[in-house]
Design a protein that fits this description.
The complex is a heterodimer of chains A (about 110) and B (about 110).
Chain A (H helix, E strand, L loop, with lengths): L3 E4 L2 E4 L5 E7 L5 E8 L3 E10 L2 E4 L7 E2 L9 E3 L8 E8 L7 E2 L3 E5 L1
Parallel strand pairs in A: 2-11
Antiparallel strand pairs in A: 1-3, 3-8, 4-5, 4-9, 5-6, 7-8, 9-10, 9-11
Chain B lengths: L4 E3 L2 E5 L4 E6 L7 E6 L6 E6 L5 E4 L2 E5 L5 E6 L8 E8 L6 E3 L3 E6 L1
Parallel strand pairs in B: 2-11
Antiparallel strand pairs in B: 1-3, 3-8, 4-5, 4-9, 6-7, 7-8, 9-10, 9-11
The chains are: A mainly beta (about 110), B mainly beta (about 110).
Amino acid sequence: EAQVTQNPRYLITVTGKKLTVTCSQNMNHEYMSWYRQDPGLGLRQIYYSMNVEVTDKGDVPEGYKVSRKEKRNFPLILESPSPNQTSLYFCATGPRSSYGYTFGSGTRLTVV
Amino acid sequence: GQQVMQIPQYQHVQEGEDFTTYCNSSTTLSNIQWYKQRPGGHPVFLIQLVKSGEVKKQKRLTFQFGEAKKNSSLHITATQTTDVGTYFCAALGGSQGNLIFGKGTKLSVKP
């Protein structure tokens, strides 16, 4: 079954404590991307990757890091989380033809 | 950078009424995608439009891409309670993979 798996689903953490949100896909997709969703602001792209070892900034990359060492995994790293990074995060993947992204189930992050 | 403006932000309809959401860009788009997000869920890809003037239908949903490829619309005929959710349009930004979303139209349907 085609899947995009994000972990964890929910996370409450404290300011400054490094965390990683994992994303894994089994569809052999080249494109992977991270979005954050906030009320009234819609979905904003944080980072995206068009292939292994190829990553690029989206619209709101500040405070985030990513890596793409393997095709199937695209972790999102918050080195020093702050309360303004409290949000709902989605990982998404898509084929090279860019025919629509498949989204993970989301990670609701709260930074206190 | 690329921006897509989506209106309205909210739409409340009575079940059985029609619904339309619009997506506009100041620049020519290579394609446009539409997604639906149910309450508490994740966005789900509905369709992609590529050609100027293209019209596609999925049951009660009709998707249109403008002749100038700067605007698009999603029309739902005779809404049902299962149509509740937020509908997003999305377009490519500066490069493949850089998919920019509109802010969405939240549809509520009163039975």
